[in-house]
Amino acid sequence: QVQLVESGGGLVQPGGSLKLSCAASGIIFRIYTMGWYRQAPGKQRELVATITSGRSTNYADSVKGRFTISRDNAKNTAYLQMNSLKPEDTAVYYCNADYPGPDYWGQGTQVTVSS
After folding, report:
1. Are 7 and 107 in contact, with CB atoms under 8 Å apart?
2. What is the pLDDT of residues 49-81, one digit of tens each?
3. 110 and 99 Cβ atoms separated by less than 8 Å
4. Separation between Cα atoms, residue 34 and residue 86, nearest integer Å
5. How many Å apart are CA 84 and CA 52, to the nearest integer?
6. How much is the mean pLDDT over the chain?
């Protein structure tokens, strides 16, 4: 059985930082493209960042220069380092694992950026 478990969300002030983690089990983690998506209330889920098995990365324009996606294959874990956070970053952040066949999603972790 496949499980993706996000952690690290919480409340942070504008300009602050958070690091999200996504721990995966039940997949051959090293071959999957991992991604972070987010969804704010009343809005569509949007891609934040992806990292391939070869560690190529892609970022939404809104987070370029502020967020960094990474992975540790030995730990079956993907990360999203978020710096210089803005109120508009407030959303539920979801981890995604992508490979031919079904995609997998975590339950999400809430990130709230507010003073």
Report:
1. no
2. 999 999 999 999 999 999 999 999 999 999 999
3. no
4. 24
5. 25
6. 97
43: exposed, middle or buried (C-beta count within 10 Å: 0-12, 13-18, 19+)?
exposed
Which residues, other chains included, contact 53 with Cβ-Cβ below 8 Å and sequence gap of 6+? 30, 31, 32, 33
Task: Give the model's confidence band at 92: pLDDT under 50 very low, under 70 low, under 90 confident, else very high.
Answer: very high
Q: What is the pLDDT of residue 110?
A: 98
Burial 82-111 (b: 16+ CB within 10 A, else e): beebeeebbbbbbbbbeeeeeebbbebbeb
With CA atoms as reference, report the closest residue to 92 among 37, 19, 15, 14: 37
CA 27 to chain centre: 17
DSSP 37: E
